[in-house]
Amino acid sequence: MKSALLSTNPHAPLPTSLRSLLSSLWRNRELIAQMTRREVVGRYKGSILGLSWSFFNPVLMLSVYTFVFSVVFKARWISDGEESQIQFAVVLFAGMIVHSLFAEVLNRAPGLILSNINYVKKVVFPLDTLPVIAMCAALFHYIVSLVRLFLVSKNQKGLC
After folding, report:
1. Are the beta carbons of 119 and 18 closer than 8 angstroms?
2. What does the DSSP 8-state code read for residue 123?
3. Using CA atoms, how far apart are residues 80 and 103, in angstroms rounded to an integer?
């Protein structure tokens, strides 16, 4: 009976065990999926290219970085062999997508509560879902970039 009262009282202290956190995330999985979708679509809402920016932005950054590091600075990954610009770009892109995942998550983490103040103040809302939503949105962009990396590296191996 006491557990039933705790689940209906929004002001009751929440359990802090890992098991309770995972069960809360499992109960709110539909909310997490819906808000992640909203977060990904809302990021590019109002732009001309829309969701396709998640494809073009990393490609444009990669082309600039590849030009600057391989042409201007003449950086090389392989010191003793011949390296093409495509090979250089593939290695650079692999590092860029991992960096962008961690950078996005770490940059958004401090402002999660302040950027979602309507959910925090006005409604009984599971706050433990906010970091998961931010991580899932970052993982979406990571997976899109990872698919591009696999396609380019597969085509690169076919060229050799």
Report:
1. no
2. S
3. 33
- Retrieve residue 145's tokens: 């970039």
- Report domain extents, the chain: 28-159
**Which DSSP letter does residue 46 get?**
T
pLDDT tens for the 160 residues of the chain, in order? 444 444 556 677 767 888 988 998 999 999 999 999 999 888 888 778 777 887 888 888 888 988 898 888 888 777 666 777 888 888 889 999 999 999 999 999 999 989 988 888 877 888 889 999 999 999 999 998 898 888 887 776 544 4
Q: Token pair 């250089």 is at which residue? A: 88
CA–CA distance, 64 with 1 (Å, rounded to integer): 62
pTM, two decimals, is: 0.77
Residue with tokens 């940059």: 107
Sequence-distant (6+) residues with CB within 8 A of 65 are 92, 96
Question: CB–CB of 88/77 below 8 Å?
Answer: yes
Lookup result for tokens 């899932």:
136
